[in-house]
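Changelog note: in this version the structure field was regenerated for every chain. One regenerated record is shown below for reference.
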Amino acid sequence: MRNPRVERGAGRVSLTRIPYVVDQAIERLEDFQHLVLVGAKPPVAFFAYPNKPNVLTAKGAAIIQLVSVEQDIVSALESLAIELSAHRTSPHLTPHKQIAPVTGKTTLDGIGAVIASLLPENAIVIDESLTTGRSQTANANPHDWLSSIGGSIGFGLPLAIGASGAAPSRKVIALEGDGSAMYTLQALWTMAREQLDITIIIFANRGYRILQGELASLGSSKPGRRAIDMLTIDCPTLDWVALARGEGVEANRASNLDEFARELNRGLAMNGPYLIELII
């Protein structure tokens, strides 16, 4: 599933995403011989990769277009539920799980646990982290999860502005890679100018990891020095605390999970923008 907006968390139906990586997506869909599309298009790869299929469904799988995005999706689903007698079945709702505090060295699971344990109810999460911060939040307080369904890079910070402007009473949390954030750095100034209630987490891995992954998917297992230099942002190393403060956004740095939890608590307690540079 690649939806731009998903309701997640306790008390809501858990939906499984179709992975971005082609091999993982094929594995996820290989057991399904029938796909019913409701306001969606057939799942395909983002790009054409050598020796990899563009269509991600199993060979010979039947694809049934129940209703297009222009049609009445809700009525179509209601009719389908009645036809299958599913309207008499209670939905399987996600239980709330108390996430124990985590400390120590920064790990992907640890980052997800910190976010899940502190996520405010009805928060709006902007996801341009791809691999970081998503795990374990499925059982957190109910929240909305917004992500891209295309190949855009740098949409996260502007999307956070739009979400905060549309729902000013709700806390917005932006999960953002450092490479992606460099595409739309000026969004921080808008957040400061409008005093938007956004907590930004910059995952500072000092590189364009998504582009590094795409290069590997093209079969380039040993890129040259120049290609590597084009996909790294550590010479000079970015100082996101200085960049944020220069645009009027209060900021601080975290290098482990203890510091991350402290800074996330601080950001969530504020009524304006706050940026955390998390070194990973």
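Spot check on this record: The chain has a mean pLDDT of 89. The beta strands are 5-8, 34-38, 62-67, 123-128, 143-147, 172-177, 198-204, 250-254, 274-279.
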